[in-house]
Structures are given as C-alpha cells and as structure tokens.
Amino acid sequence: MNIFIYGILKDSEINKLRKKTRHNLGVKIKEIRESKNLTQVDLASRIDGRFDTSNVSRIESGRINTTVFTLFRIAKALDVNIADLLDIEVFEN
C-alpha cells in the first residue's frame, strides 16, 4: 500500500483522502471480481453471511466506507488475501 502522509492534514484534505481511498478500494475490488469473471450478484452470494448485491455496488463505486470485517469477507469470497484488496495507490508521488 502506498500511503504517504506529510505533516498534519486539514479537514478538506482528510475528506479528499477518504474519498480517494474508498474509490481506489472499490476499483481494486471490481478489478479482481471481473478478473475472476464474477458478477456483483455472484460476489454477493459468495460472501459469508447475509450480503446484499447493492452493498457490493456501493463499495465498488466508493460510495460507502466499509469495515475491515467486510473487507475480510470480500477477500475470502474472491479467494485473495485482504492485502490484495488494500494494495491501492492513495497519494500520487
């Protein structure tokens, strides 16, 4: 994971970081899902416990912030390590 934080961030910078992190995480999940030829419905049905397809959509589009436990469940459903989901670029060099 490539996260570089310089000094103290302002609230507006933190909000941008949150948004970009959610977006990039969603892109990574979608990329892995599609590489395995799975639809969002397929992925939702593979996730342990009750998980709605609309939640997959919201996570992939970066509209919601998900928990570590949910990321663990998604990683398990995709048969990847959770670190593979978190291997995202947040700040540009």
Automatic annotation (TrEMBL):
GO cellular component, as recorded: cytosol
Protein name: HTH cro/C1-type domain-containing protein
InterPro entries linked to this entry: Cro/C1-type_HTH (IPR001387), Lambda_DNA-bd_dom_sf (IPR010982), TransReg_Diox_bact_type (IPR050807)
Keywords from the UniProt entry: DNA-binding
Span of domain HTH cro/C1-type: 29-85
GO molecular function: DNA binding; DNA-binding transcription factor activity
Keyword Hydrolase in annotation: no
CDD domains in UniProt: HTH_XRE
Pfam family, one: HTH_3
Highest taxon of the lineage: Bacteria
PROSITE patterns, per the entry: HTH_CROC1 (PS50943)
PANTHER family linked: HTH-TYPE TRANSCRIPTIONAL REGULATOR, METHYLPHOSPHONATE SYNTHASE
